[in-house]
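INFO batch 0412 | record 1 of 1 | parsing
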Amino acid sequence: MTLEALNKRIKTTTDLREIVSTMKILSSVSVSPYEKALASLNEYAKTVHDAFWGFMLSSEFMLPHNKKEKNEHILAVLIGTDNGLVGKFNRDVLSFTKTYFEEHQINSDNITYLCVGKRLGAIVDSTVGSKLHSTYAVSNSLKEIGSIASTLLIKINEIISKQSTSKVLVFYNQKNGTASPKTKVSQLMPLPYDELIKLKHNKWDGKSLPIIPENTSEMISGLTHEYLTVILTSSITSSLAAEHYARMINMQQAEKNIDKSLEEMNLIYQQARQTQITDELIDIVSGAEAMTPKKNKTIL
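INFO prediction complete | emitting tokens
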């Protein structure tokens, strides 16, 4: 490679490093809003939990116990990304899902898939085919997350009403410290009735029990809707936070690789340049010697 070509390659790589560095900074900044949103959702989830708690203490309404069915039909909601530069983000979700069902010995014929993320949907479609019911695009806007969650709930209720679905599970990625994102599963339906029933035996934190409306069915319906909404919204938000964090980690690694390449290319350039200078000096000296007239040797 000529010095000119090598110098051009160094300049292109330097420009690429600036782009990668900018993307790393943008991803790092983008994580914060999602983390704040998650913190708010966790607080709201606690409020919903306390509402269930107060309801269980103040009402004679009986919740059903969870029953394990032999051939339960499961609706798997997979949340991925439509954006790139995140490595195996989507494939990790699908891989974890398949492993989960294998470990729990769930018949693949009893599983229906619902995907959030067109790219993930394409991967799932190529794997499970007709078992994929629907695919929805995922937005990076915090304002759109609630709308996506509401749309999913409508579709989930529609699928449940048409199929004998006994359980709805949500699979998504979440931040994992400084490492790559970790895939997690949350049960959306049925509600953890056994845990809610146990709340009857817990002592209420406040001085007096909350007042429960007479129409307990509307109360439990409203609480259930809020519970499902907060689970779905939190899952989507967690996935988006993990996506930006994964991109930041990938850009950070790419930045290190580019720095290493630049260091190697600069060393090669300096060596080649030094060799060229040495060759030029040798040519100059050789030319000067050739131009200098030789003295006649004295014959004794």
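INFO post-check: The domain at 3-24+252-288 is CATH 1.10.287 (Helix Hairpins).
INFO record closed
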